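Progress report, Aim 2. The chain analyzed during this reporting quarter is listed below.
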Amino acid sequence: MADIAMVYDRSETDEMGIRLVAEEMGIDLEYLPFYKVAVGIGNHGFTYRSLGRDYTKTVEGLRVVLNRTQSKNRRIFATAIFESLGKDVLNPLSVELSCQSKMRTILSFYERGIRIPETVYVPCNVQESRVRGGVLDNLGVVSDLIAKQLGVGKVVTKPDAGTHGRDVRLSEDQEELREVLTEIAPSITNPSGVVAQEYVPKWFYDLRIVVEKQKGGAGFCYPTALARGGFKDFRTNTYLGNTVFRADLPPVVQKEAVRCGEALGFGSESWIIALDAMPYIGEAGGAEETELRSSFAALEEPFKKVLDVKRNPKKKRDFVSYSMDVEDAYTKYMSTEAYGHIKGVINDTLEASKETVMFHEGNACPEFWEQTRIVGGVNIAESLLRCAQGLLDR
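Predicted structure tokens for the chain:
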């Protein structure tokens, strides 16, 4: 019976990548669904069953769980369940809870003196139902409170537990802010109130940085990161059409990233966290930006070929061939003159702004198999499995 299990909703490329790497490392890895299952807990013990299989004995024999469930709330439930059964979970519940909420992440960084964007949390909702009927309109109060702290210029509002840049909005002035606020209502990604931050002029890119800690070791930051960039949207998320590059992290940024990991890790024995960070570069422009835009235009066709491979409907049936194909497409994309030009600008500006990099989010279950692994140079599957093996050493 295996000591380590991967718990997941659906087997996507990241989960298939973990499976492949486990085979290459000679690790016996169990696989547990956590979607259409029933977890029973009572005075006579626990059960873990799907309609077609009883996993109870499998769970009893486990020692370490890799939590790859995608929903943040479902991931928290999974971690809490397995930790209550005495299992070590990557990542621990304390990390999951910190990363679930942007405000909790920001507060953890603030306590450590880590550079963060100016942030405002207004606890009341923009519109609130009265107990005896009717609606209380807090629009004016909320917008004035935000403006009092962040000014009347550019402001970014975001859901506290959102992902992939969804519902992150940029307001140019107070009038636009009020329009954006009218669309913010309590939801699963924004349970209560409004989160707003200063607009950080990062020019055209931000960073996804991976930090980890193995049992008995110190926190570690990988020296390369994934830079997500483009001029299509102020949100540089690739879901919005932007592209990706490898960035070389200055030592001072690596050191600060480790401090972020330690802040979110809460003294846990082992963790792996992807951090989102922004360099404070300013609003550029001029001839250099004109050249950059030309390079981004030249990258559209080679990056489209990457996306075409990623859309291959047969990738789950022949994952090894798919991985080779997507690596080949990314390699051709990264070998272009346009990619080299943009990567050079990123590294130069990052070195120049290394003392001003701001950290603002943590992700306890990042996607990685294509972009972070191939372009960013960090294989999180290897990190997860190494950390899991370390936790077996009792």
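The chain has three domains: 4-97, 118-198, 201-377. The radius of gyration is 22 Å. These observations will guide the mutagenesis work planned for the next reporting period.
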